[in-house]
Amino acid sequence: QQQYIAQQPRAALQMVYGAGGNRNALDKPFDAAGQRKWSFGPCDCTEVCGTWVLSYFCPCLSYGRNMSRLKHMQTHGRPHPAGGEMFNEDCLLYELLGYAHLDCLAGMNGRASIRRRYSIQGGEWEDCMCHTLCRSCSLTQESRELGLEEESQL
Asked: pTM of the predicted model, to two decimals?
């Protein structure tokens, strides 16, 4: 007969992945479900003027760059050496869906991928609304979230 010893749970260390990269660089608090808020609000987009302008005038390029950065972080555990490729298959998909006014579907998918990586609160409805109401702000917010992890690895 085995004897079991009960222990109280202990606090976990902050999530750190890869070569020192921090997925919660601003140390946002997590809720009971283990999720947190975005590091920056969607209306903070003009603080990064260059990214916002690119996202406003060429959202497909901004989306392609974000997805390139995200995929590189997921597969290599470090920032993309060139800062992300803008013109790629994700960019083309976004542009093609845009002709049918369905580019928000690609945007929702990308936003959901970023939310999963960083354990950010939200759901499909919020993702849809963000990309439908202000895709340039949404793409900029996503870019900034990726940038925090990239900066923490430099």
From this structure: 0.84
